[in-house]
User: Fold this.
Amino acid sequence: MKLDAFVEQYLITALWSTNDESDERGGEPLDKNYDLSDIAEETINKAIEDCKRFREENAEDLSIGEETHAAHDFWLTRNGHGAGFWDGDWPEPQASRLTAACKAFGEVDLYVGDDGKIYS
Assistant:
């Protein structure tokens, strides 16, 4: 499946920032042992939908930044990581509006299924 740059970066960030929970310390980041080809089709489709809606609803605020940086920050902000739109890379008031928009999407958790594919 061909992904646009925004969705691809969003999913790369998801793999990088999510651990596989393979041990009591949380395991390894998913991107150590998995790549985009390991993500289940339904998870990719959901990411495509979320990214499309986020970009449509926030087009004006996103127009001031770089697309892949925005995708990275969308994943991090919506999931409450210690970085994102609010951490100083985006000017105000766009940073605050984009942060609020991300939070409205809710969090997404990735996990490795019994079939070795990554799901949300």
About this structure: The chain has a mean pLDDT of 95. The chain has six helices and two strands.
